Queue: 2 jobs
Job 1
Amino acid sequence: MSDQTTPDFVPIPLSKLYPDEALCTDIYLLINSKYIKYKNAEDFISVEKYDLFLSKNVVSVYIAFEDSLTFMNWLKETKEKSIQEVVDNVGEEFREEAVAREEIVERVFETFAAEELNKENVSILKSQADELIESISKKKIPLTILARLTKKSPSIAEHSVNVANISVYLALAMGHAHQYVLENIYMGALFHDYGKAKIPSKVLEDPSNITYTKAIEQHPIKGALLISKIDGLQDQVTTIIAEHHEQHNGKGFPNAKKGEDIYELSKIVALANVFDNICANNMQKGDKEMYKQAIKFLEHDKGKKFDPDFLAPAIEALYLAYK
Ligand SMILES: [Fe+2]
């Protein structure tokens, strides 16, 4: 029952909110059974805070009940704006794929923010990935669209989806056409940083601490271990997660694997991960310059971090997608 003096609050899944967007109403957090005002209208939630919520397993924020309608309209508008940003990248004829991508980002956030890995969410993500990959081949969509089905954002959920789409694009460009292989690479890429998202926020707060360094070093193994507990995912998926920071020259982590000891699909995801990270660091430079910088970085590698046999076709494919 509500009384006259205390407003009622309604939960809003954090996965529905976009970081760095000016809020339309005040936002509250539920702390020790009390609603505490966290942000005023016109404020925004930064990407850093957004990702911190992930590590704190914060799934929802709250708004006052009387703001519900305004808030729902605002949510719809910001979602449309976000989809439009991707449509501008791929073209109006691929709006359906841009919408599908948005749904995957939301689901990734929910999955990463939940305290425990939710089997149902993983299986929904698997179906969403299957559908996206199937629609690319059925509708004969140009492969480069997959690489452009990305959004500039340093948020971990957006980054995970970017890496998944770029990885599948690279895999296709290198001749991996089997649905099974593409699904595995998609899921491996989507969850590559799950272990990082599960580093406790207390550890993340102090990068000078040895616990922080160890947690970062071990995040591929931690993520792979957590994912391996989910039925229905193939070993390839966990291998990709475990190896996404290994390098061709043996200077990667956590196991300093070398060259041919690294699984081929892990190499693709490792490259897509570095590529998207460099893009995120150069977002302010505009699309053309951002892609140029990221490709230039890969060209300078000359087979140190990345397998030289695989680097040349990967760079060629990236040029094709982002020219
Ligand atoms: Fe990582």
Job 2
Amino acid sequence: MDMSTSPLGLIAPRSDADWLNAHWMPFTGNRDFKSAPRWITEAKGAYYGTPDGRKIFDGLSGLWCTGLGHARSEIVQAVSRQVAQLDYAPAFQFGHPLSFELAHRITGHMPAGLNRVFFTGSGSEAADTSLKMARAYWRTKGQASKTRLIGRLKGYHGVNYGGISVGGIAANRKLYGQGVEADHLSHTQPPNGSFFHGMPPAEGVGKYAGAALADELLDLITLHDASNIAAVIVEPFSGSAGVVIPPQGYLQRLREICTAHNILLIFDEVITGFGRCGAWTGAEAFGVTPDILNFAKQITNGVQPLGGVVVRQDIYDTFMAQGGPDYMLEFPHGYTYSAHPVACAAGLATLDLLERENSVQQVRELVPHFERAVHGLRNAAHVLDIRNYGLAAGLTIASAPGEPAKRPYEIAMAMFQKGYYVRYGGDTIQLAPPFISTPAEIDSLVSALGDTLQATA
Ligand SMILES: Cc1ncc(COP(=O)(O)O)c(C=O)c1O
């Protein structure tokens, strides 16, 4: 597609305040955006197009969700066909075959033993669903005191009340008052200046040794007793906090402790699932199997909203066994858009492409090049640390005096002007290029970022 000549979307952007202010935008500086809007009106492959005919390289795969690139004809056709065939069906009490097919296909890519899928509409809904499932599971088993939830500093599990409660990003929690009671493990981000490539070593730096960090869970068990703890939830690697990678041995040790103390381990794989790690899941990449695994984003290549929670069969069986008469609900939970037929069609077409194009292998082959390129920014201005895993990298940016979030914002805006979309969050810049990126495109992204860092005050 030639972006410069292609038509705009059906609705042209306007600049009058009333039109702009009608939309309260999410996770956006609304006043800043509306004073100088940054429009995206089309997308193809690894690029967005703007109304003024510019091409923007998609350096974060949308929001970590469009690894296959945009406007893939197979997904476009599957979605169009499905809208015409069955645009919506009630999610409760009736079924359509696409959701069963998608669940079945998904389980084929999960670690052994995770084979029952509950669909949601987003990653946030998946997080809260998994937490409710964990509490309900123990209660159903007659262990109703096991309710306490444990998350981690820097964790991101979406924006619903359960998710922000176990989450560990202050900016997403501090405005909202009382949440769900939760404890937090330390984060696993090594000190600035570590510049580890991939996973930090098991011995880490200072307190950041893998096993020692995980052993903090033992302290929480001593404090609360395992009879009161339902679950531990972590991202295999944290994306939104700026790509924080677990040290070697950390996830293994968490798994050992959870198993020994009868605590469910939940992996939030909303970013790490379906290819970004160079494996189908972070669980597979890191060699640790949770009891419950959450996914969203890449499952539909971002084309339709869809998330889900995959559990061990015995968790599902426990609910079924204790469900009362067959016509009763075993788990009174679900969303109007759980397993939406059009989202399932997008999911099936996405899995077809991920399998056919061997995307996991494609990512694995690109990783060494990506890793070399991003670590080439080590000596660039303002860069305090760089972390990477799979096709994801985070750079910690030195704060402008008193304004930790300002420089990353300025860098991201300057990058957009140059034709590159990257994400800024807190004191970090985050990169997650599409799986279909070429080495030359990675080089061009990183080189533009290097120039921008140098040019930033
Ligand atoms: C690990 C993780 N969990 C949950 C979410 C929330 O997903 P959503 O924005 O679809 O609700 C995200 C989004 O970035 C995420 O990275």
